[in-house]
Write a structure and sequence with these properties.
The complex is a heterodimer. Chain A has three domains: 184 residues; 86 residues, Orthogonal Bundle (Helix Hairpins), CATH 1.10.287.130; 151 residues, Histidine kinase-like ATPase, C-terminal domain (Heat Shock Protein 90, 2-Layer Sandwich), CATH 3.30.565.10. Helix content of chain A is 51%, strand content 14%. Chain A contains nine helices and eleven strands. The radius of gyration of chain A is 55 Å and the shape is rod-shaped. By secondary structure, chain B is α/β, with parallel strands linked by helices.
């Protein structure tokens, strides 16, 4: 089975993808929040410093004519503060309270760059080594973006410099024309973010692995009943109809399916067993007449014989063939009834008329056996196949006569009862033993195990099949040595 | 050899009886289990052919009852061909099992084998001096030349040959060579014995006065 066709694999891939998406979203969100938090903190620091510088500049006085940047007295000047040689029209130095804000010995610490209104570099801290010229282009851009004439402290024009990526820069244009840039390296923060990224990725992978493993376990468990079912079905299709699905393991929704399937398998098995039994019984019934023919003919052909002996042989063979013919007819009738009722006629007819005809038909047999047939018939209209009902009645009458005793009676009566047409055939015969009673309608079942009666044991089975096909029912009641009563009920 | 056939299908019973009689057996018949059991218990048959499905008492019942008193070889004849039926038949005490429909030659061969085993013989040929009895071909050779015997004479020679060294009583011979339809009070047996002596030599069959006959 391809893994793309396997339900288990498709499930696995599906929730694997969902899990990856969820973890990625969570991870990215967490990363972004962390990053914003870190950068926000730096930005606050930068704002704080830019404010300090702006205030220092302001105190120096506005305007280029009164340059605010005078060299601080040498004792006041921080020793790490070296104004650029070329861009140092005046000396500018941080007020002492602000020097702590800029650790100029550390290239990664905060630095500042100040431009005059004409774009001239006024001052910069010594550690502003990472301040690249391209940042100036950004400055231009920034100025366009932030052009309010009066920039106040609480409305700083600040943004993030795009490049270099490991720097954070804030610019403020003063109303007096100076641009103050304050920046710092964010390498430690980036480092921190990297660690966070790695941690998030690692944790995500572990969760993903656990998720997939758990999913695999659950889907395997969920699929196992299906595997049980298919294994059982496979064995059944291979011919072992006694196989059943182990329902103890399938308590889920599939358990119900398994129970239903088991019931189906059981019905299949019994149907097959019945079919097999039927075939075997049919073969069995044919064995005796075939044995007769074989024995008779092989004996007859053993030597030259007189015509009368041959005649005897042929007669015996004929009897055997007649029996087989009768049996084959009955088997065909049963096969037709099993196949369905498409060939069944649906005529409206008087059942009592059919019964009268049948009684006439069996009268010679009754007389021969010394049995009297009594009729209590009233006209009853029923729907169905008159010929087949004739067969039913003849069967019942023949049985009633054959299993009767000399001088016995057979009573045939019809009546309407609860909107059903009822036929009762009652004899005064030997009766059927209680143990045989439930089985008399089974195919090939004979209460007397011999074949001396010449019946194969199909008559009642056929009768029942015909009646059931017409929506009716047949019941039997019997008392030994008193008689048997068959009751047929049909929709009137 | 005397055989009992118990079978309820009249045409099959008649055909089998006729075929076996023509094979030279003395044949008794019964068309139901009760009669069959009665006969089987009261006569010493060389073999019984027993049908399973019968009225009154079926083959199993007959066999179970019979095995309480007799060891007569029984060949079950049945339409049931499933293994478990055969196992049941053999376990109940049947000696062989033939499924309908059967071929007569096979049935005969199985009967011969049953009778042979009943007499503790392993082959179909019994050699007695210069006389050779072939029970399969049902003929007798004297100095390798076939001897013409009637069916009854052959049966006599075969029975005595199978019981070589034993004294066989006249009653035994009557029981095994004649069936229920023969008149067993005639002196037919003496006629057959004298005919056999004429054909195979006077010394072949020895008379034990007051006991019976014997082949030594």
């Amino acid at each position: 089975m391809s893994i793309f066709k396997s339900i288990k694999w498709r499930l696995q891939i599906w929730y694997g993808l969902i899990l990856v998406a969820v973890l990625a979203a969570l991870g990215i969100t967490a990363y972004q929040m962390e990053r914003q938090e870190l950068l926000g903190r730096i930005d606050n620091e930068l704002q704080h410093r830019i404010g300090a510088i702006a205030e220092a500049l302001h105190r120096h006085g506005p305007g280029p004519d009164h340059p605010p940047f005078g060299h601080p007295p040498p004792d006041q000047m921080p020793d790490d503060f070296h104004p650029p040689d070329q861009h140092e029209p005046d000396g500018f130095h941080l007020p002492p309270q602000d020097t702590l804000l800029f650790d100029t010995s550390d290239p990664h610490h905060f630095y500042f760059v100040i431009y005059g209104r004409d774009g001239k570099l006024l001052a910069q801290s010594t550690n502003a080594v990472n301040f690249r010229p391209q940042t100036l282009d950004s400055r231009k851009f920034l100025e366009d973006q932030n052009q309010p004439p009066n920039l106040s402290q609480d409305k700083p024009s600040a943004t993030e410099a795009v490049s270099p990526s490991d720097e954070r820069l804030v610019v403020r244009s003063l109303p007096s024309g100076e641009d103050i840039w304050v920046g710092c390296s964010i390498v430690p923060e980036l480092q921190k973010l990297k660690v966070i990224t790695l941690t998030l990725t690692g944790v995500s992978f572990v969760i993903l692995l656990f998720g997939l493993a758990g999913g695999w376990w659950i889907s395997s468990r969920a699929i196992r009943p299906v595997e049980n079912i298919s294994a059982a079905a496979l064995k059944i299709s291979a011919g072992d109809l006694s196989q059943r699905i182990n329902t103890a393991e399938t308590e889920s929704e599939l358990g119900k399916l398994a129970t239903v399937l088991n019931a189906t398998f059981a019905r299949l098995e019994s149907a097959f067993a019945q079919q097999k039994q039927f075939a075997s019984d049919a073969a069995h019934e044919l064995r005796t007449p075939v044995s007769v023919i074989l024995t008779q003919t092989q004996t007859a052909l053993g030597r030259e014989r007189q015509a009368s002996e041959y005649k005897q042989t042929v007669e015996a063979c004929q009897r055997a063939a007649q029996r087989m013919k009768k049996l084959i007819g009955a088997l065909l009738e049963l096969a037709r009834l099993d196949a369905g009722q498409e060939q069944m006629k649906r005529l409206r007819f008087d059942f009592s008329k059919t019964i009268t005809d049948c009684v006439e038909l069996v009268q010679p047999l009754a007389e021969q056996s010394g049995v009297k047939i009594l009729m209590e018939l009233s006209p009853i209209e029923i729907t169905g196949d008159p010929e087949r009902f004739g067969l039913v009645v003849t069967n019942l009458l023949t049985n009633a006569i054959q299993y009767n005793h000399d001088g016995g009676e057979v009573k045939v009566a019809t009546k309407i009862e609860n909107d059903m047409a009822v036929l009762v055939v009652k004899d005064t015969g030997q009766g059927i033993q209680a143990e045989d009673l439930p089985r008399v309608f089974e195919r090939f079942y004979r209460a007397d195990k011999s074949r001396s009666s010449g019946n194969a044991g199909l008559g009642l089975a056929i009768s029942k099949a015909i009646i059931v096909a017409h929506g009716g029912s047949i019941d039997v009641a019997s008392e030994e040595n008193i008689g048997t009563t068959f009751t047929v009920r049909l929709p009137a | 050899m005397r055989i009992l056939i118990v079978e309820d299908e009249p045409d099959l019973l008649a055909g089998l009886a006729q075929a076996l009689r023509e094979e030279g057996y003395a044949v008794d018949t019964a068309n139901n289990g009760e009669d069959g059991l009665y006969k089987a218990e009261n006569y010493n048959y060389d073999a019984i052919v027993l049908d399973v499905m019968m009225p009154k008492l079926d083959g199993w019942g007959v066999l179970t009852q019979l095995r309480k008193t007799k060891k007569t070889p029984v060949l079950m004849l049945t339409a049931r061909d499933q293994s478990r039926d055969r196992v049941r038949g053999l376990d109940t005490g049947a000696d062989d099992y033939v499924v309908k429909p059967f071929d007569l030659p096979e049935l005969f061969a199985r009967l011969r084998a049953l009778i042979r085993r009943g007499a503790n013989k392993t082959t179909n040929v019994i050699q007695i001096g210069e006389v050779k009895i072939d029970t399969a071909a049902r003929n007798v050779l004297l100095k390798d030349k076939p001897v013409e015997l009637t069916a009854r004479e052959y049966s006599l020679v075969e029975f005595l040959g199978l019981h070589r060294g034993e004294v066989v009583t006249r009653t035994q011979l009557y029981e095994h060579l004649f069936d229920e339809s023969d008149d067993t009070f005639s002196n037919l047996l003496d006629v057959h014995v004298s005919n056999v002596r004429k054909k195979l030599g006077a010394e072949f069959v020895v008379t034990r006065r007051g006991h019976g006959y014997c082949i030594e």
